[in-house]
Design a protein that fits this description.
Blueprint: H1 14-38, H2 48-51, H3 54-78, H4 84-99, H5 104-123, H6 139-150, H7 154-161, H8 172-184
Helix pairs in contact: 1-3, 3-4, 4-5
């Protein structure tokens, strides 16, 4: 069935994921409808969010629910967790978005567009910040190791920048006190 090197697939709760993504995208649709309601030139009440923006809320919620269900259902049917699942979910979700225009090319176009975006996004790591370097290494420890690896000696920094502006070498206070005493005749306490 599956090779030994691959981890066993764990089924996903398609209905639960559909409900969760419906609520999240419904809230996003409500936010957009509220923004549209506040930007209208006519005098509308607070209920205008639902009466005028109900279609926006419904399309967002339906699209999110379709994406969540289709992604999980595709993963369960294929028994794989790869980039094709978000692409399938994106195609069906984009199709729901295209239904608002009531043309078949719009359904296919929105579906193909969202399938490409979701599939490529998941294939490239599913993050805007890129891939994680190594899941077994703590990110903080990795960054500290990089800082220690690239840290320059203080003498090299002092030679290039000089002292001051937050960069002070060993014995700076004594040298400063001597310099002020020599130039201005003021005794600076040495602590």
């Amino acid at each position: 069935m599956a090779p030994e090197d691959e981890a066993a697939y764990k089924p996903k709760d398609a209905v639960g994921l559909a409900i969760q993504s419906t609520l999240i995208m419904g809230a996003a649709g409500l936010t957009i409808a509220a923004i549209q309601n506040t930007l209208t030139k006519q005098n509308v009440t607070g209920w205008g969010v639902f009466t005028r923006g109900g279609g926006t809320i419904a399309i967002f919620a339906a699209s999110g629910g379709t994406y969540g269900f289709a992604k999980a259902a595709a993963a369960n049917l294929r028994e794989k967790d790869d980039s094709w699942n978000p692409a399938i979910g994106g195609f069906l979700s984009g199709g729901v978005l295209g239904l608002r225009l009531r043309t078949f090319p719009a359904v296919l176009g929105f579906g193909a567009g969202l399938a490409i975006v979701q599939g490529v996004f998941d294939y490239t790591g599913g993050k805007f910040s890129g891939y994680d370097k190594d899941p077994n290494v703590d990110e903080y420890e990795r960054k500290e190791a990089l800082r220690m690896n690239r840290r320059r000696p203080i003498q090299e920094t002092l030679e290039e920048l000089g002292e001051g502006r937050g960069v002070y070498g060993p014995g700076y206070r004594e040298r400063r006190a001597d310099r002020i005493k020599q130039n201005y005749g003021i005794d600076v306490p040495r602590t």
